[in-house]
Amino acid sequence: MEGSNNQQEQYSSLEDRILRMAATDVSDLPDFPDDKSDLPSDFEYNPEDYQEEEVVEEISESELLKYLDQQESALSVVQRLFYHELNTSGYQRNSGSWNFDCLTPQAAEELYSRGWTEIEGQLDLEILRGAHEEALQLMEQGQFTPAKSFSGNDPFRDAAARDDSILWFDPGNQANHGMGIVDTPPYFERILEFIQGPFMSDIKSMLRLNGRAEYQLAYFHPGGARYERHRDALPTDDPQDTNQRRISAVFYLNPGWVTGHGGEVKIYSRPDDHGLPEGAERIVKPLLGRILVLLSGVVDHEILPSYKDRYALTVWMR
Ligand SMILES: O=C(O)CCC(=O)C(=O)O
Ligand SMILES: [Fe+2]
Predict the structure, then answer these.
(1) Hey, how many other C-beta atoms are within 10 angstroms of the C-beta on 92?
(2) Is the ipTM above a cut-off of 0.90?
(3) What class has domain 97-317?
(4) 3-class secondary structure, 133
(5) What is the pTM of this model?
(6) What ranges does the record give for the region Disordered, renumbered to this chain (predicted)?
(7) Residue to mutate (ligand 1; options 151, 165, 216, 227; most atoms within 8 A of CB)
(8) Where are the domains of the chain?
């Protein structure tokens, strides 16, 4: 391997990281002499020689995330998916020349250095209000399905974690009610055009992406519907890994939202956030026109109980 410049080597696959994390019982490994020259020249360490019967335990998503976070901060891992470090002074001095279609340099830097940012003013009011109306119509037509009924047999995430009802837009494919996929109505079509165009292009210019996107419209009912603390993906720096979501962007569609309506997103700070104690929270209101952008594998978030009908379109990019 010596002298190889293969870029792949600077990334570790998520599976590798989980396996390394799982190999906590070092007593199973052979004793290596401190001085490696003592090893017989033909010594080859083959882990399989030392493996005992594999014990597969089901562990929860939050346990797995906790282990991974102990191994390396999720933010540091995911930052390796960016083409540049955005928090250096040299990079920021040049921020005036960044060629973004819609993001500001500040939003890009926040996304890089703390894992999330909020942006506003990207879509016309007419489109946003139109999409809100379309969401109401989809609700009237009975197109939403409780999210629980999709995750019912997923041992990784507790079905009780969320009270929302969802549907999917899949512009390339036919509507399929059984799968929760509906035809994209015209105003949502325009939001999707924005996402697939300038928005995706800006994200792609700073972060390695395959360009695949999923679109989910979620409804939280006014009887206190919530979604407990979770992360949208496992942190990985492997550009070949298309299982894990990389970017979550939530487009809020709620005109006239005020404090008493609840439904805010609580964002949990990370141990490596500058100046903020671990677990300190930031609150984001789901206001019409606001877009919350997260590194999916990095930021824990929660939706607080909602006391008014709450609609949001979430896009995940891989
Ligand atoms: O609606 C929101 O504010 C975020 C939704 C969310 O966290 C998710 O669907 O994973
Ligand atoms: Fe989420």
Answers:
(1) 14
(2) yes
(3) mainly beta
(4) helix
(5) 0.83
(6) 24-45
(7) 227
(8) 97-317
